[in-house]
Amino acid sequence: MRDFLTVIAILIILVLSAALAVPYFIDWEARRGQVESVLGEALGLPVHTGGAIELRLLPTPEIMLSDVSLGESGGARLTARSVSVEVAPMPLVKGEVRVIEAALDAPVLTVRVGEDGALAVPRPRSISAANVEIAIERLGISRGEIRVEDAAGSEIARIGGIEAEVVAASLAGPWRIEGEAQGVPLRIATGVREAGGDMRLKAVLGHAGESHLDIDGALKLTNEPGRGLLPRLAAAVRYTEPLPGAGPEPRQLALAGTVEGDVRSLTVRDLGLDLTHGEGGKDLALTGTATLTLAGRPSLQASLGGRRVDLDGLRERVGEAAFGLRASALLDRLPMGLDLSLETLVVEGEEFGPLTAALHRDGDVLALSRFDLGLPGETRIAGRGEGLVPSGERRDDLAGTGSVSLNIGQPLVLARALVRMGVPQSFAEALAGLPGLAASAELALDHGSIAARNITVKAGESEVGGAIRFLPADGNGGRPRYEAEVNARGVDITDLPRLDGLLALASGADIGLSLDARDLRIGQAGGDALGRLSALVEAGSQGIVVEYLNASGFGGAQIEAQGRIDAAGGRLGATIDAEHPQPLAQLAARFLPARAGAALTRAVADGGALHLTLEAGRVDAGAPLFVKASGKIGQTAVEMGLSLPPAAGVGAELDVSLTAGDGAQLLGQLGFDVLPLPDGEGGRLSLRARGPSLDDMAGRFSLAAAGASLSGEGTFSFSEARPLFAGRVTMTAGDLGRLAEVMTRPLPGGGALPLELQADATFGSHGLSLVNLSATAGGMPLQGRLTFGEDGRVEGAIRFERLALADVAALALGPLPIAPEGRAWSGERFAAAAPPVDGVLTLSVDSLSLSPRLALSDAALRLSLQPAGLAIDELAGELSGGRIEGNLSIRREGSLAVLSARGRFTAIPLSSLAGGALTGTLSGDFEVGTAGESPAQLMANLAGGATVSVANTSLPGLDPSALARMVSQALAAETLRPDLPAVTAALAAELDKGAWPVPQIAGPASLAGGILRFGPLTLPAQPGTAEGSLSGTLDLRSLAIDLRATVVTATSPKGWSGPPPQATVIWSGPLDAPARSLDAGGLANGLAAIGIVRELERIEAMEADARERAFHNRRLRAEREQRAREAERRAAEEARRREEEARRQQELQRQEDRRRLEELLREDSGQQGPLPAPADTPSRLLPQSQEGLAPRPLQLPAIHHLPELVPNGAQRPSMSPTGGGQDSGAARPSSRPPAGPPLDIRPTIR
């Protein structure tokens, strides 16, 4: 047996050795056909190899092939550069294959998609091969690729760069694949394929926190004979991609839905497109459906809708980040269609909607088949079109055609919304004035050029039509060109927006304009006010050609212009005649810059006729261009000559002369606000300048009007980059008040105010600036600087020697009316407010008058000029060593003036306020306000509050000891005179002897109805002398004071009843001269009460004396009666005492008898025989019988009772002298035993 086993072992070793060594000695490549045949039969697929073949059996079977191809050539197939497969040997015995390790290098899987959606993949042809149980422990794929072809073999899609590891329990699953494809991480896990072909599928592409796709659902694989593999997917799909940006909150795009379909078409239900930020915040939320068609030419069709989309939030948080999405690269190449529906669209804070749109893109072609957007004001925009939109950087190659329409039902509502969005105010105002608007046009875009034709615009009775085209520069130094053909009828010029922006836009470009506008009107004017304007103009770098320009109507106006000017010379002439030039000025103002348009409108505002002749020309190519203008604007004669050199630096000349018979009219034509006051002096403006060009000229100008003259010398420039004038100016006026009145700004005060002024001036597009200003106004010098902005705003700093605060307030209130005789304030209404001014001035004043008697020294304030009034801020100055700081605001509302003020005053000497009558200082703060149409109403409506503190002062005529002295003197007099006049006179004389010292007193004050009230304030007490309080009112309406000081003595005099003596001192009357009076009625009444008490006391003393004598007599009689009763009592007491003594003696005798009896009984206690029974009668002691005498009984007093035994410490009943106790009158139970009969003691007979 042992030998047999040995032989078996040797055979096994030989077999294993052969299995290990033999494969290395076989040339497998020479047997390639046999190997391919065996492998083909095992796999059920054609197998072709083109490279090395290696095979080994131990330690585990392994085969390695190079250049392998599985499947039919030209059909579905799998190729690989190399393949190695290592299998476990033991499962092979059972007919199973367990791949321990396999590797595919550069495999390429080619899949074909049939027209019916079936997939042709390499698969076993024999059933036996397909039914082999195969398990894969590890399959490594390197540099793999999947190619998808259609039935004709054309490639549809390719997925390369596959690096993965595959694990499968069987070919029916479950499968697990991990790796990456085209650099995107990939994880796929499946379940076991069920009988119906369903297989659970879960796949994740990408990393968490980056772009990734999640698929969770079921994959159904169906094999149908003759058709191939039919896969079908039903899964929940979610794609998320972070959005770039540096914001603090993470943002991402999320696309989710339920996908169903096969390789021909995928349908997405419950599609959701969200743009989120932070924790759940959504900037965009759209829902809908989508269909991805894969058969034939792939395409995507989606339908999305949402309730509200905030484009502002998207632009802020997302910006253009969405254009960098990974998904956009695929969508950019995929034909797609989109139906979009939004309820609300938020743009610049305004809500638009609803929005519906339908777009389709196929390559570079973008078609908009439907676009409809609602805007505020019942406005709708609709459009459609189709164009070429190149991808990438070729944005200039845009081309397309389309149409657009606009309908506005409520232009005012839309205009308000547009203003809030930042649209220019002028455009919004023009739109708001329209009754409604309907517009349409056909648009064309062709490689940078834009054209709109068949334009129609209707707004009420106005109609505008025509065509517009813009041609960009050709890139060879050419200029862009604007062409317009405009036909209009019934247009209201006042409804037109400002068109100066269009002229600025067209600067630097060639312009061609054909215009025919009829029935032009201004406002509601009709008839001869209607006008017509027609023109054909060409303007460019070579010159200007006016074929014709005619304007007629407009209330009798006529304009004609024609000519040509180019580099070779030419002439252009124009005449303007208008009896009423205001309509023409309004029309021209729409095309001119705002400042020039406003100046032109003011120049013809007086209603005078306009007659001008204009001529411009050049003699030849080398001659200068000349421009001449002459005529009249109203009553002002105009002469102007301008000569421009053909080249810069040669020399330019400008001469302007304006002469008017009315200087105020000339100022108005120059753009100043003036009143039509008569001026017999006339006015004149002259300007003469020379220089290399209009941008660099030097000269001088002079202006004389309204009694004032202004002249200057310096440089002139008509360049926007430089000031129009810069130089030294001088101004003189015999009466500045007259000029100010003409210019609608009357000065406060009266009398002539001569002025001399010099300054360095700069005038340009930013306004007028005056620096190094030095002037003398009314003999008072002032210095500083001033700036007048283009918008009229005034800024600067000026220093005055003297200035009244009332004059500053008059800038808002107008000249203050003078109060009539006997009244503090005038009831006359304020004058109309001056034209509004805006600006800030810093004023420094050596002496700022607050009132005729009070002035601040070294004062400073900031004056804010406002359209409706003024504000004085940071007012500060010194007043007689103290300081005042505060703010004041004055606002005008028509004839009503509203005033408010607040401030603080510190250590103001009372002597400066009261004319030396008081010492000490005043401090505090206040806040007041009022409103009224006159100074009297302002004072009557004053209201507010204050806190006041007075230090180191005294109240004269208020001697704190005066009241006590006066009362003492009155009470010390023999005859008391309590009548009120005498008391008042006496108290007044005493009060004048001193003053009440006040080291410190403070308290609040209230202001209502123009009356200032304070107190009562407690005056510093004078120890042992008096106490006091102070209260009062100041009537600002009449400047009257009512001050009351109440004085109370520290102690009450003898005989004084009620509160201590007191009196009230009253100062009332005009503020500058109050009169003192006294209220001593209470004091007089108190003194009168003391006099009455004194008289009553005298009468009472007399009555008391009489009562005392009667009382004395009654007392004597009572004393006698009392003594008699006392004697009787003593006699009775003596009798009772003697009786008691007798009874006591009897008691002693009884006690003695008893003692003797007891002794006798003790002596006889030895005798025999019974003692005789006691008798019922009282005991008797019978003596021994004597011879011949009968026995005689011995009578003893009866013993009624024995002494009562009382416990120790108990109270024995007391006995009264009559024998009764204290409770003798009450029945008390006796504790003694009943008394027996009296003892009858008889002697024994011997």
UniProtKB/TrEMBL annotation:
One of its GO terms (cellular component) is plasma membrane. It comes from the Bacteria. Residues 1134-1246 are annotated as: Disordered. Residues 6-118, 821-995 form the AsmA domain. Residues 1134-1165 have a biased composition (Basic and acidic residues). GO terms for biological process: regulation of protein targeting to membrane. Pfam families: AsmA. This is AsmA domain-containing protein. It comes from Chelatococcus composti. The lineage of its organism: Bacteria, Pseudomonadati, Pseudomonadota, Alphaproteobacteria, Hyphomicrobiales.
